[in-house]
Automatic annotation (TrEMBL):
PROSITE patterns: OMPR_PHOB, RESPONSE_REGULATORY
Domain of life: Bacteria
Location of this chain's protein in the cell: Cytoplasm
A molecular function GO annotation: phosphorelay response regulator activity
Sorted UniProt keywords: Cytoplasm, DNA-binding, Phosphoprotein, Transcription, Transcription regulation, Two-component regulatory system
Every OmpR/PhoB-type domain range: 132-231
General function of this protein: May play the central regulatory role in sporulation. It may be an element of the effector pathway responsible for the activation of sporulation genes in response to nutritional stress. Spo0A may act in concert with spo0H (a sigma factor) to control the expression of some genes that are critical to the sporulation process.
Species in which this protein is naturally found: Blautia wexlerae
Gene Ontology cellular-component annotations: cytosol; protein-DNA complex
Entries under Pfam families matching the protein: Response_reg, Trans_reg_C
PANTHER family registered for this protein in UniProt: KDP OPERON TRANSCRIPTIONAL REGULATORY PROTEIN KDPE, REGULATOR OF RPOS
Sequence ranges assigned to domain Response regulatory in this UniProt record: 5-118
Protein name: Stage 0 sporulation protein A homolog
Amino acid sequence: MNKTLILVVEDDRPIRNLIVTTLKTHDYKYLAAENGSSAILEASSHNPDIVLLDLGLPDMEGVEVIKKIRTWSNMPIIVISARSEDTDKIEALDAGADDYITKPFSVEELLARIRVTQRRLAVMQSGEQIESSVFENGGLKIDYTAGCTYLKGEELHLTPIEYKLLCLLSRNVGKVLTHTYITQQIWGRCSDNDVASLRVFMATLRKKLEPEKNGVQYIQTHIGIGYRMLRIEK
């Protein structure tokens, strides 16, 4: 059986059963909770590797569950919600969620998001910290100590802002970062002008990282929300 323990927090029984059955079929260990209070108790008692969390719980908002868990743990939290508005996604991600899936969802999408999160966990648990001197992802290599970036062995010439953005994304590979989070990390503030500037810098960075039209995609845009660096399989 897969050693990854997943906590499913969902008050809708048919959806909860679907998720649990999917996990069971693919040999994941799992726990289930029907409300926020139970979710917090299960998370604190069993320390699951991943939490799958609905936002519309009967006793409290899912965002509150995220905030409470974040007071003691960085365990990955994937939100699964029928709320599709950008404001809901941004609120959950800014509260500390790692990813967001909108209902209705396919089983294949759910499993793919879990696999991405597992890869992030593997990096963290192996002690191969992103803060190590060199980061590699597909053909991309970042030497943090030297402040140099390489793509397929060729050095990339990045502006200081582009380099800071790339480092921020690489240190959170696989995780969606909101516009607010990125601009606060890069400029120490978030305004409409900062978000507009961010889009310009991200566009120029992507042209350098992804020069081929149908080549490898390193950065995924979540329209109206933010960006994510994708983990590239070798």
